[in-house]
């Protein structure tokens, strides 16, 4: 599995959420709404989730094992750091 595209949308407002990310896998499958969150020990990713009827949030797409999660997180956070160096686009 290769991540073939990463799209970063920086979040302008104050708060812990810093960006919303979409990734493309093998030029064939896209996952939208991955969040870059600033935590106490640095940034991490949160996979797209949905609030269930019991009030809990459940991931609707996620890696099956920790090595895949770490790989996806590293790629996203590296691209996020690059995006921070780019000037913000004017609308």
Automatic annotation (TrEMBL):
Q: Which keywords does the record carry?
A: Cell cycle, Cell division, Septation
Cite the InterPro entries for this sequence: SpoVG, SpoVG_sf
Top-level taxonomic group:
Bacteria
Q: Which Pfam families match?
A: SpoVG
What NCBIfam families does UniProt report for this protein, alphabetically?
PRK13259.1 (NF009749)
What is stated as this protein's family in its record?
Belongs to the SpoVG family.
Summarizing the function annotation, the protein's role is:
Could be involved in septation.
Stated name of the protein: Putative septation protein SpoVG
């Amino acid at each position: 599995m290769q991540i073939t595209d990463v799209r970063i949308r920086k979040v302008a407002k104050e708060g812990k959420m810093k960006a919303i990310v979409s990734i493309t896998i093998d030029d064939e499958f896209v996952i939208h709404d991955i969040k870059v969150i600033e935590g106490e020990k640095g940034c991490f990713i949160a996979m797209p989730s949905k609030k269930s009827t019991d009030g809990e949030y459940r991931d609707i797409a996620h890696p099956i094992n920790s090595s895949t999660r770490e790989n996806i997180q590293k790629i996203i956070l590296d691209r996020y750091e690059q995006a921070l160096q780019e000037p913000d686009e004017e609308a």
